[in-house]
Design a protein that fits this description.
- This protein is α/β, with parallel strands linked by helices.
- The protein has 15 helices and 13 strands.
- Helix 4 packs antiparallel against helix 5.
- Bound molecules: guanosine-5'-diphosphate and magnesium ion.
Length: about 450
């Protein structure tokens, strides 16, 4: 069942929990005005509320039986011209944790029900205010960690992907109608030539490929890349971690074994979130002392982080050179791809051999960081498809792939001169797969799944 098909009145806090300039409580549904009439007044003394008109803002008080709760403004939207397509009211009150919760409670006591996650957006979709690709763009926009991803999400929200998908669907529909007309009215309409329909389908496959070309960079922008900084104690891992983040996040000392826990932060490199992990230094420990016991727990965490990382930044101290302990660790990682050997403390390493092809950095002077970031980007983007103007998520990519497979089957059908009614079946399936992207044809399960990923109040 589709959980977003109701029109009962729902309410939720739309702003993050915490103190802020304003807090917003959103109410949507057939009886939202009824709720507002019970809890909002223009003036506490003469207890009145003017006729609430669409697209107007009202100043007044939220009250509990005319006991003042907060001074607020009320935004009024009328169906169908609102975010959900229903009557929607937004109460903008002072932004305190307690006050927004109190007003929400009042709404719930006066006829509204607490909205579930994504219920406002789900209703917007059901009421034709938002297609699925735009709803997903809203979700991306909220979670975007880089400028590049938020720009791509904003473009999808403005209809870029939906527009492209709709133009592909229109072309497919035209093709289908030519074929179907000849099947249904063989006396009047000639069957279209196989090469003609094949050509048009090939153009569609190319168009789909050009959208899919951006899959890798879309997925990278969305999920980021995990890089772990590993190496012996005192190699300068925490210093490099701080330098890459451009903040003092991890403790740095000259005492070996300072970092015992895993510390993770995200940093933007060319629009891709790099999820960077600082780790405990790798060394063999005598496990008798308590100090060593704690450090050994950190080393185990380091090993786990190494296993799940996409990239390993293996750091060694240039003033000491690669030691046999470093060799031992690197030997244990020899089956791993994407290891960047990085030399640290370049500022005090006087006589290093420059034939060594490793990247050399100084966290102290912030040199070599650009080269390191470039090396990370090269790994991330190596042997990947070229960029595309379209940003897609995994679900959309799967729909495009499926549509492409049906089109390829139909093209094979043309080459074999299969009966055109058989070819039209594959074309219909290709059309359905494309329709799933914007939500023209989509199961309740998918809708419930997408909107449930939204937060409450969205
Ligand atoms: N001169 C210099 N010292 C550094 C540099 N990076 C780290 N250090 C020093 O090396 C010691 C260990 O650094 P730290 O980042 O805690 O190493 P970790 O144990 O690998 O995390 C500290 O005394 C740092 O000040 C660097 O780029 N230049
Ligand atoms: Mg450290």
């Amino acid at each position: 069942m589709n959980i977003f098909s109701g029109n009962d009145t729902i309410a939720a806090i739309a702003t993050p929990v915490g103190t802020g300039g304003i807090g917003i409580i959103r109410i949507s549904g057939s009886d939202s005005q009824g709720v507002i009439e019970k809890i909002f007044t223009s003036c506490l003394n003469d207890q009145n509320l003017p006729e609430l008109q669409a697209n107007r803002i009202y100043y007044g008080w939220v009250h509990d039986n005319f006991q003042p709760i907060d001074e607020a403004v009320l935004l009024c939207f009328r169906s169908p011209n609102s975010f959900t397509g229903e009557d929607v009211f937004e109460i903008q009150c002072h932004g305190g944790i307690n006050i927004v919760q109190k007003i929400l409670k009042l709404c719930l006591e006066n006829g509204a029900r607490l909205a579930g996650p994504g219920e406002f957006s789900g209703r917007a979709f059901m009421n034709g205010k938002l297609d699925l690709s735009k709803a997903e763009a809203v979700l991306d926009l909220i979670h975007a960690r880089t400028d590049r991803f938020s720009q791509a999400s904003a473009l999808n929200l403005s209809g870029r992907l939906a527009g492209k998908i709709n133009s592909l669907r229109t072309e497919l529909l035209n093709l289908l109608s030519i074929i179907t007309a000849a099947i249904d009215f063989p006396e009047e309409v000639d069957e279209p030539g196989y090469s003609r329909i094949q050509q048009r389908m090939e153009v569609l496959v190319n168009e789909i490929d050009s959208i899919l070309a951006g899959s890798v960079s879309s997925n990278l922008m969305r999920h980021g890349v995990k890089a772990v900084i590993a190496g012996k104690p005192n190699a300068g891992k925490s210093s490099l971690f701080n330098a890459l983040l451009d903040m003092q996040r991890a403790i740095v000392t000259e005492i070996p074994g300072t970092t015992r826990d895993i510390i993770q932060e995200s940093v933007d490199i060319n629009g891709i979130p790099l999820i960077l992990t600082d780790t405990a230094g790798l060394r063999d420990l005598d496990s008798n002392s308590q100090q060593n016991y704690i450090e050994s727990l950190g080393i185990n965490l380091t090993k786990e982080a190494l296993e799940t990382s996409d990239i390993i930044i293996y750091l060694y101290d240039l003033t000491l050179g690669m030691t046999c302990e470093d060799d031992k660790v690197l030997e244990s990682l020899k089956n791993r791809k994407n290891i960047l050997k990085v030399g640290s403390k370049l500022d005090i390493a006087w006589d290093i051999t420059h034939e060594d092809p490793v990247i050399k950095v100084s966290a102290k002077n912030k040199t070599g960081l650009t080269e390191l970031k470039e090396a990370i980007l090269t790994i991330v983007l190596s042997n990947k498809e070229t960029d595309s103007e379209f940003c897609t998520n995994l679900r959309q990519q799967e729909c495009l792939q499926r549509s492409r497979e049906f089109l390829t089957k139909a093209i094979d059908g043309c080459k074999n001169k299969d009966p055109q009614d058989l070819i039209s079946i594959d074309l219909k399936s290709a059309l359905i797969s494309l329709g799933e992207i914007t939500g023209e044809v989509v199961s309740d399960e998918i809708i419930n799944n997408i909107f449930s990923n939204f937060c409450i109040g969205k």
